[in-house]
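Recall the central idea of this unit: under ordinary conditions, the amino acid sequence of a chain determines the structure it adopts. In this exercise we apply that idea directly, starting from the sequence alone.
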Amino acid sequence: MAEIQREQIAAYERRGPFWGRVTQFATAVALIAGIVVSLLVFDTLASFYRGTGAVKPTPAEQPAEAEVRECQRVGPVSGDGLGYWWHCAVTVRTHDGREVDTVVEHSVVTPDDRGNSIEFREVCYEENHSDCRYGRPVPRIWALALSILGILRVTTVLILIVGSGFALLRGVIGVPAYYAWHNRNKKGKT
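Accordingly, the structure predicted from this sequence is:
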């Protein structure tokens, strides 16, 4: 650890205080850009999933049918990620006879589906059907893969946030002052 500190302080001092700090700020900006890019990539990958997102067997997915009413195209950069996606208003007829008007995103259905009865699934997390999700039938393994992708997304973003925070701190106070502070606090805790 001490060797890494010496190398980083030497690199900072070779650049001088101004360019050393600029390098740290540039690193922070690159890490923040990495946050944006990683969020877009993870959102794009998640948008390929067409199901309800139910991983657990309870509440169980129930069969339903959907009829596409109108669609809106979003993109090339949106909450769905990179690319063009369809957000479509649908009427869902559930297994218990309810009709639900909702909007499904991520191109779960497209304008090409108009006029057809689309096989759907419904999963509700509240007894009064206030928190329901809709999608196409997909194997449960894909919902698990989506959950794992979500964990990777959060982990990646947290690592990049911490890294950009360190780079900003080192840019503000300088690398030698940062390591002097770090070493002082480290000795105080032992």
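Helices lie at 2-47, 140-173, 175-189.
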